[in-house]
């Protein structure tokens, strides 16, 4: 029996994601994350940054496993994000940050339950974008294979 997620991600089963496009996407997500971190204050910035963090994990997972189902990548990205957030309840991130200050960008420092909302949003948006891209690529391949094009829209 198929689930809603199975039906939504069906186009991606027979294809592999483009690693070059994923690398470019990862760079864009990192740049957006830095811009949000430095320029968007308050709760909106926190949630956007958390969503981008999880989105980056989704993209990195897709880069490593380009044939993985989007739902699996989204669940893994959310799970890793949530695990890192929960880890902030321990002294480990502060200890790592003392040795490697840049680790703060990955491990954070303070637990915030609202970040979990951002992670869920990021996983959902990444999955949605992945489905849209998969469907567009599938549609494009079908038209190339059959030598057809969409008729131009008038008016």
Automatic annotation (TrEMBL):
User: Which InterPro entries does this entry report, sorted A to Z?
Assistant: DUF2809 (IPR021257)
Transmembrane parts of this sequence: 20-41, 47-65, 72-96, 116-136
Top-level lineage group: Bacteria
**UniProt KW Transmembrane helix keyword:** yes
Matching entries from Pfam families are given as: DUF2809
Q: Which keywords accompany this UniProt record?
A: Membrane, Transmembrane, Transmembrane helix
| Keyword Transmembrane belongs to the record | yes
Q: Tell me what this protein is called.
A: DUF2809 domain-containing protein
Q: Which organism is it from?
A: Frondihabitans peucedani
- Provide the taxonomic classification: Bacteria, Bacillati, Actinomycetota, Actinomycetes, Micrococcales
């Amino acid at each position: 029996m198929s689930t809603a997620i199975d039906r939504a991600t069906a186009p991606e089963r027979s294809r592999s994601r483009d690693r070059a496009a994923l690398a470019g996407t990862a760079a864009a997500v990192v740049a957006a994350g830095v811009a949000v971190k430095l320029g968007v204050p308050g709760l909106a910035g926190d949630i956007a940054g958390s969503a981008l963090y999880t989105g980056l994990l989704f993209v990195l997972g897709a880069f490593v496993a380009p044939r993985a189902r989007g739902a699996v990548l989204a669940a893994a990205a959310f799970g890793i994000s949530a695990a890192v957030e929960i880890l902030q309840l321990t002294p480990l991130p502060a200890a790592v940050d003392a040795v490697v200050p840049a680790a703060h960008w990955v491990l954070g420092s303070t637990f915030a339950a609202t970040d979990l909302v951002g992670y869920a949003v990021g996983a959902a948006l990444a999955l949605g974008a992945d489905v849209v891209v998969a469907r567009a690529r599938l549609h494009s391949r079908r038209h190339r294979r059959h030598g057809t094009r969409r008729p131009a829209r008038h008016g």
